[in-house]
Amino acid sequence: MKRLGAADRAMVICIYVFLVLLSFSALYPFWNTLVVSLNEGMDTAKGGVTFWPRVLTWTNYDIVFGDKNLLNAFWISISRTVVGTVSATLVTAMLAYGMTKSYLMGRKFYTFFFVFTMYFGGGLIPTFLLIKSLGLMNNFLVFIIPALVSVWNMIVFRTFFKGLPAGLEESAQIDGCSNWGIFAKIILPLSGPVIATLGLFTAVAHWNDWFLPTIYIFDQQLMPVQSLLRRLLNANLISEQMGIDSNTVERMSKKSITSKSLVSATIMVVTLPIIAVYPFVQKYFVKGVMVGSMKE
Q1: In the chain, which end has fewer C-beta atoms inside a 10 angstrom radius, N or C?
Q2: What confidence score (pLDDT) does residue 284 get?
Q3: 87 vs 62, 84, 92, 143, 145, CA distance in Å?
Q4: By three-state DSSP, how is residue 34 classified?
Q5: Is 22 or 244 the better-scoring residue by pLDDT?
Q6: Backbone CA torsion sign across 72, 78, 84, 90
Q7: How many Å apart are CA 199 and CA 85, to the nearest integer?
């Protein structure tokens, strides 16, 4: 800063102020939701709860974790996210590895076929009829099978695989290693950054998705947590949307719980698990998101 001129210092200060305000605008809604979830509901209804809870309470979370529907929805979301992320990442990586082979018959046709689906789709009604004809309605596999292949992720994987030294595969083939062995023992271990990055994006997509179960799932026991949260946000009566009986509703009123405080607690419970994943894969982002950014 000392070596900069007055105009440059002013510009740097403006940039820092802008970034601070931008960060605050992004973080404050989340922080305020946390504060409201930790504040007594009737006190929150009076207004003025901004940065700190006035009347600290854990009652909102007691009600949320006491709801059996929410706990079951959490299990569905966790299962869907884990199984969907692992299977989609593995299948897409295998497809991308095959597309790197110049001797693959019809490779140009396959490339055109995959890219074509990125620009043109059949729409909701044909997709619904397809899912119904496959017997995936009200089936847990409807979360997994339609999302097994992502064309965009396949292109990123393929670009990364092409950047690996060709001598690695050649030496493995001389030692008698098959394509499956090369993929499992060489390609995947070297692809940690791109797997972590795309795996996280896939996991976030699975965790946050509410539209698909709204269309294809009618069984309450298969509803993920995001669908339950959407129903919670859109419902007029808490007792109807969360399946709480009249005794629980009466107990809630005695504990000064309001719909706003309960919704805030539910949002925090739904959001925090996927946020907790970021620190574990953050170190891979810089390298992973740069895959394919430069062409030689």
Answers
A1: C
A2: 67
A3: 35, 5, 8, 11, 9
A4: helix
A5: 22
A6: negative
A7: 6
